[in-house]
Specification:
- It is a single chain.
- By secondary structure, the protein is of the alpha+beta class.
- It has 5 helices and 9 strands, in the order ααββββββαββαβα.
- Strands 1, 2, 3, 4, 5, 6, 7, 8 and 9 form a 9-stranded antiparallel sheet that branches.
- A hairpin with a 7-residue loop joins strand 4 and strand 5 (95-102).
- The protein is globular, with a radius of gyration of 15 Å.
């Protein structure tokens, strides 16, 4: 089942752990598809979240975060790596979940490189017609198999925001046992 807007129309810290065990699916221009299990996510929630791109207000870069849920937010960091996020929550409230890792692909830059994801996906709806979507294939992840940790690379946000346990990691032993 392809996840649709109602799934994403919830707070980022709720959506992020629930994406673990779902599958990121990419259809390439030549018709091939590739899918891998999502194993790590990070939540960015609202204008007060100092680690969020929206903390400094609305800009051309983060405009998509203020839009409807279930839309891709992609951007380039360090002029090298594309990052893939999905917008969450109600329209007008800037929130998103960063997809950090897939089974066998560790790190958000590697994830986008492996799946051929760049800024051309920015502002596209996460559905089959965009060539990039998320599927629920019935995998149930017990809470005990989800590790919560602080987000990565956000020390600039100060101790309150950098220490938030909004990074969610699927236990690696459990992840390898699925399918």
């Amino acid at each position: 089942m392809i996840l649709t807007q109602p799934f994403f129309l919830r707070p980022a810290p709720t959506v992020a752990p629930e994406l673990l065990g779902k599958f990121l699916v990419r259809r390439f221009e030549d018709g091939r598809t590739r899918s891998l299990l999502i194993t790590e996510t990070e939540a960015y929630d609202g204008p007060d979240d100092r680690a969020s791109h929206a903390s400094r207000g609305r800009t051309a870069r983060n405009e998509v975060m203020f839009g409807p849920a279930g839309v891709w937010y992609t951007y380039l960091v360090y002029g090298i790596h594309h990052m893939l996020n999905v917008v969450t929550g109600p329209e007008g409230y800037p929130a998103a979940v960063l997809l950090r890792s897939l089974r066998g692909v560790s790190g958000p830059g590697r994830l986008t490189r492996e799946f051929g994801i760049d800024r051309s996906f920015n502002m596209l709806v996460a559905r089959r017609s965009s060539g990039l979507w998320v599927e629920d294939r019935g995998v149930i992840i017990p809470r005990s198999k989800i590790v919560k940790a602080p987000r990565v690379g956000v020390d600039y946000a100060g101790p309150l925001w950098s220490a938030k346990p909004w990074r969610f990691i699927l236990d690696s032993d459990y992840a390898t046992s699925i399918f």
